Amino acid sequence: MNDNTLAEQIADSLRRDILLGRLAPGALIKERDSSAGLGVSRTPLREAIRILASEGLVTLRPSRSPIVANPSLKEITDDLVVMNALEILAARLACMNATAGELDRITALHEEMLAISDTADAVSYFEVDMAFHRTITAASHNLSLADTHRSYMARLWRPRFLAASLRRDRPRVLRQHGDIVQGLISRDMGLVSREVESHTRHLVTNITDLYERHPNGQPGETVTGQAAMEPPRDPALRPH
Amino acid sequence: MNDNTLAEQIADSLRRDILLGRLAPGALIKERDSSAGLGVSRTPLREAIRILASEGLVTLRPSRSPIVANPSLKEITDDLVVMNALEILAARLACMNATAGELDRITALHEEMLAISDTADAVSYFEVDMAFHRTITAASHNLSLADTHRSYMARLWRPRFLAASLRRDRPRVLRQHGDIVQGLISRDMGLVSREVESHTRHLVTNITDLYERHPNGQPGETVTGQAAMEPPRDPALRPH
DNA sequence: GCAACGATTTTGGTATACCAAAATTCGACG
DNA sequence: CGTCGAATTTTGGTATACCAAAATCGTTGC
């Protein structure tokens, strides 16, 4: 059998459907229908739904069908505030704990992002953006922090993706990333804190703008393009 | 039937067993045996185990029995670092957002703690301590932050409880709590940040001491006394 | 017409049965 | 006496069946 359990595969599949907009916010996820649609039984589908609920992508209601989460702007902003604090902490810890190899990987991702910024589509561009932030978090050498941060990244995936699609902002983002890289390499905790904070502040502004243009439901239609879109990995189980 | 689902009740029960030390760190939780022992079927027990795993109290291993988590000192310290950041953020937000009523509740809890500090047993004392910190987090008016913080409180419950049992530290803890209350009331974000940080630093020291005296497994035997011990509520489902 | 009520259907929650890895046991062989 | 390996047992993963709330819809009485 496959190395992953069925429930995890289903969670991955549903997560893609939600994040790419194929499952609209507020849509019902009936256990019988969905499991039949995927050709599996209800048991692993139920488990998958709980996984997604713990990531904030699905809302559980007592004795009622789970629905695709439809967070309000306040909830998204609240999540961003928390993720901001986690990223600042991660960056500061990375200043202290990152190995030379990790700094190289971060630098390489930044340079790749610079290289493709003119030509890449939103999807490929965003993939590198995600990898950049995730690598910094990993360099903190704090597994709990990395897990929690990953969870917030997942639930903020869609708003972040939409914001990253604003091509006019790419120069600023790249400049800030460059400053963060500089701060990490020189192990300047004050600098990285300021830059991460500023980075998030712009993100909040952009997402607020987008949200006010498309108050509820789908800001922008289904994400098309390559199906090889990186589905965020579910939080790794920690083998203590 | 009861208002809570069976899986949640099982999770509550297992959580109490783990946190009070009735289930030793590293102990196997076999699905068949445990479910039979509780007189329920495997399905809700499985779900309960996933809940506890998401709280970090149980470790899942592929195709092997789940075991009670047995975190290393580094993992506990890592968790404390994250919780510290979350508490600082919560306290700063509470400075901005707390209502007068919430500040009153926080003050009342602090005064209750002062009143019972000489007479109370470890369990009752710790209950108030938990409530104090949880109320501050709630006053941040950021639900995600409160949930995430609650999760870290849960997984750090046992080390925190053992540290709080050190009676010699109570005067310092009470003084720091008083400073935090003052900072909140005067909405002085700098003050509360410093005090929360210092609070956590002492906690890390105490837990490190305890851990080095009892490296693995049980530092201190099963918690006895009243069975009415507050079992931490599982993270509330957020009705968006 | 319409509102209140009850039968039917739908749906999540739980129990049970089955399957396939993984662990264990025990005997054959060196 | 030790070691390797196959049969057996144990155990987590999955499918299916059953139950009880909740929602839906049709009916009835006003």
Topology, element by element:
The structure is a homodimer of 240-residue chains.
Chain A: H1 6-19, H2 31-38, H3 42-54, E1 58-61, E2 64-68, H4 73-97, H5 100-116, H6 122-138, H7 143-155, H8 157-164, H9 170-185, H10 189-213
Antiparallel strand pairs in A: 1-2
Helix pairs in contact in A: 1-3, 4-6, 4-7, 4-10, 5-6, 5-9, 6-7, 8-10, 9-10
Chain A binds a DNA duplex (30 and 30 nucleotides) through helix 3 and strand 2.
Written description of the protein model:
The structure is a homodimer of 240-residue chains. In chain A, α4 packs antiparallel against α10 (189-213), α5 runs antiparallel to α6 and α5 (100-116) runs antiparallel to α9 (170-185). With 240 residues, chain A is mainly alpha-helical. Chain A has two domains: 6-68, Winged helix-like DNA-binding domain superfamily/Winged helix DNA-binding domain (Arc Repressor Mutant, subunit A, Orthogonal Bundle); 73-213, Up-down Bundle (Four Helix Bundle (Hemerythrin (Met), subunit A)). Residues 225-240 of chain A have low confidence and may be disordered. The first copy, chain A, has a two-stranded antiparallel sheet. Chain A has helices at 6-19, 31-38, 42-54, 73-97, 100-116, 122-138, 143-155, 157-164, 170-185, 189-213, and strands spanning 58-61, 64-68. Chain A binds a DNA duplex (30 and 30 nucleotides) through residues 1, 5-7, 30-32, 40-44, 46-47, 62-66.
Q: What oligomeric state is this?
A: homodimer
Sheet of most strands of chain A:
2 strands, antiparallel
CATH class of the largest domain in chain A: Mainly Alpha
For the biggest β-sheet of chain A, the strand order reads: 1-2
